[in-house]
Design goal:
binds FE2/S2 (inorganic) cluster; 144 residues; globular; Sufe protein. Chain: A; 5 helices
Length: 144
């Protein structure tokens, strides 16, 4: 059911923890399953120099957060914003369709952390376009 990459990132998640003096913090929850995720970012000269996560959630959410933090490291804020849940799932060599929405948590957490940074620097927040974290009415239910 899960790719080797998903299993690897689930069993050996990268970047677990919390950056103490983070420049941006994002917390998101998935209301249909109650899973939550916190992303902390260190940002220097518009570059994400460090990213960490804490996830209270399913294996797919853990693997997605791990991969997402890997993908945004070293990227500009603009590039990091474009790291979609689909890109995370692709980098994980796929997620079962019923678990695709778990990867949305990672995208949402990164977006919130970026916007937290922008708010702190009096920059206009960027707009969420494709996120459906709170739009689960027609979505599959989370299943552990
Ligand atoms: S994030 Fe809730 S089941 Fe995956």
């Amino acid at each position: 059911m899960y790719s080797d990459k998903v299993m690897d990132h689930f069993k050996n998640p990268r970047n677990v923890g919390e950056i103490e003096d983070a420049d941006g913090i994002g917390e998101v929850g998935n209301p249909s399953c109650g899973d939550i995720m916190k992303i902390t970012l260190k940002i220097k000269n518009n570059i994400v120099v460090d990213a960490k996560f804490k996830t209270f959630g399913c294996g797919a959410a853990i693997a997605s957060s791990s991969m997402a933090t890997e993908l945004v490291r070293g990227k500009t804020l603009e590039e990091a914003w474009e790291v979609s849940n689909k890109a995370v799932a692709e980098a994980l060599e796929g997620l079962p369709p019923i678990k695709m929405h778990c990867s949305v948590l990672a995208e949402g957490g990164i977006h919130k952390a970026i916007n937290d940074y922008r708010r702190r620097h009096s920059l206009p927040e960027w707009e969420e376009k494709n996120l459906h974290i709170h739009d689960h009415d027609n979505d599959v239910e989370c299943q552990h």
